Amino acid sequence: MRSSATSIQYEGVDTDQNVLQKHVMFFDRNNDGIVYPWETFQGFRAIGCGILLSTTAAIFINLGLSRKTRPGKFPSLLFPIEVKNIHKAKHGSDSGVYDTEGRFVPSKFEEIFSNHAHTNSNFLTSDELMAMLKANRVPKDFAGWLASYTEWKILYILCKDKNGLLHKDTIRGVYDGSLFEKMAKEKASSGKHAVTPPL
Ligand code: HEM
Ligand SMILES: [Ca+2]
């Protein structure tokens, strides 16, 4: 089911509990509340990723998150991710912008930029992003380090501008998934003239 709770608007971003759900709903291609591996694959393809990245992402994301979103249920070999329980798939060493219920926390979002956007408060350079990832690391939380690194590096590679800068509105758009919709529209409209995907 799509977002139903009352939402507080923060510069156009919902802060209700469904924001993390919105982040993944783009990948629930048939809107049945479950993201199967082939839907993760199709979602990655739709935003312009190559076959290799889309396949790898589908395998790792669904193998990694399926069990966590299906507490108490028997593991399924189809590796479904249940959108309504996606907050249970949160990991450590993240930015804290999603709280434990998957809500968007505006102050944490602003902290990314007040703490790390030294060059200009409207974007992160590659080095600043790396410094943020290191600062977010919880000691010995290797799985969390890897998860955060992968999420942010993929975002950076796909969405940096021509000068290698990752803009604040791009980052804002990833949280509620609106960035994915935008990328998919751009991919669709570029049609046959699409450039080779960056990954
Ligand atoms: C190109 C595709 C994707 C990109 C670029 C991406 C990027 C991100 C980023 C940047 C974060 C924020 C991490 C933080 O605040 O430190 C995040 C969080 C998250 N993403 Fe994605 N994501 C993608 C696809 C997916 C998919 C397909 C799923 C699952 C179906 C997913 C599940 C999650 C979850 C559960 C979190 C919360 C992690 C946490 O805060 O601990 N993402 N993602
Ligand atoms: Ca589905």
UniProtKB/TrEMBL annotation:
InterPro entries: Caleosin-related, EF-hand-dom_pair. Keywords: Membrane, Transmembrane, Transmembrane helix. Belongs to the caleosin family. The keyword Transcription does not apply. Pfam families: Caleosin. The chain crosses the membrane at residues 44-65. Coiled coil: none annotated. This is Uncharacterized protein.
